[in-house]
Amino acid sequence: MVPNLNKINQFKLKKIAVVILNWNGAKLLEQFLPSVVAFSEEATIYVADNASTDASITVIKEQFPAVQIIHNDSNYGFAKGYNVALENVEEDYYALVNSDVEVTKNWLAPILSIFENESEIGIIQPKILDFKNKDYFEYAGAAGGFIDKYGYPYCRGRIFETLEKDTHQYDDEREIFWASGACLFIRKKLFKTLNGFDADFFAHQEEIDLCWRAFNLGYQAKYTSKSVVYHVGGATLNEGNPRKTFLNFRNSLLMLVKNIPDHQLIPIVFIRLVLDGVAGIQFLFKGKWKHCLAVLKAHFSFYSLFKKAYKKRGLVQKENYFNTKSIVYSYFIQRKTTFEK
Q: Quick one: which H or E segment has residue 49?
């Protein structure tokens, strides 16, 4: 269904559309929309609402009248929710921002400059710091994402559970492999070319899959420290939720099937399944049996979706997608806990 855009024609079209996906997040909107409204002069601001049943719509209309509302007719999750919402958003560049993100002054100017002057850049991520501990990087994205040969994602500033303090060690601009869905900028034309996020993912790792598909088409993703945001993280689905474990394990496997070269597909997926099994056993020994069960369910769901995922493979799968062979080995065996190591 085509979403209903509130007040869509009242404002002159700007270059950037800041689009915040929301589901029953009235309190988050009250807390975090003020910074977005205050510091986004270059953008039109949208809240894409996934059929909330709380006071979200009332909060937007009464407290943020300049914000445009996109009414999705169901809770489509992150992936399809954005796909549906962006169908009629016409700005040249999309800023996809979580509802628990606080932005800072001039956060959009560096992004606009890169897009306008570097045509090879299709996706951009700002520096993402922890809202609850602002001297540290935040788990979801930190200073830009990378991936190892077996599909395990990690970031500059965050490897597994180790978060680095921001001592300006990543105050730069450089190419990255993936940008965090917590705050991701993408050219509208590229988003349309990629047919948006993979709706089968529902949520989690869909942004890595999107960036990987863009990489296979020859586009670059870039990190810039000149734009800074603060992210709460886990406001929708916290780390301890087995549902998150299920989505992360399943979607990571689907992503591999879609994007790695043909000759690597079977051996890498097999090794990843084994490593997942080890993770499941660890959950069991730690008394987290619900998470162990989530890994098992993720594998069965993956098997059911394998053929569908394989059919989504593009014409090109690049070889040099990974930054290190095994982040698991580097981190847990060699005890290399920071990106610089």
A: strand 43-50
Read off the amino acid at residue 247. Answer: L
Q: Phi then psi for 148, rounded to 5 degrees?
A: -95, 180
Question: What pairs with residue 162 in β-bridges?
Answer: 159
* Residues in contact with 149: Cβ distance below 8 Å, sequence separation at least 6, in sequence order: 268, 322, 324, 325, 326
Rg over CA atoms, the chain:
19
- On average, the pLDDT of the chain sits at 94
C-alpha distances in angstroms, 231 versus 13, 115, 124, 156, 276? 28, 23, 16, 16, 28
Task: Compute the C-alpha angle 93/30/182, nearest 5°.
Answer: 40
298 C-beta neighbours (distance < 10 Å), count: 22
pLDDT tens for each residue of 65-86: 999 999 999 999 999 999 999 9
CA distance 94 to 210: 14
Distance CA 245, CA 180 (A): 18
Q: Is the pLDDT of residue 3 over 90?
A: no
Q: How far is CA 327 from CA 174, 291, 317, in A?
A: 20, 22, 21
Which residue is listed with tokens 């930054």? 323
pLDDT average, residue stretch 161-179: 97
Structure tokens, 242: 């087995």
Whether pTM exceeds 0.70: yes
What span, in angstroms and rounded, lies between the C-alpha atoms of 170 and 190?
A: 27
Grouping H, G, I as helix, E, B as strand and the rest as coil, residue 182 is coil
pLDDT at 337 over 50: yes
pLDDT tens, 193-218? 999 999 999 999 999 999 999 999 99
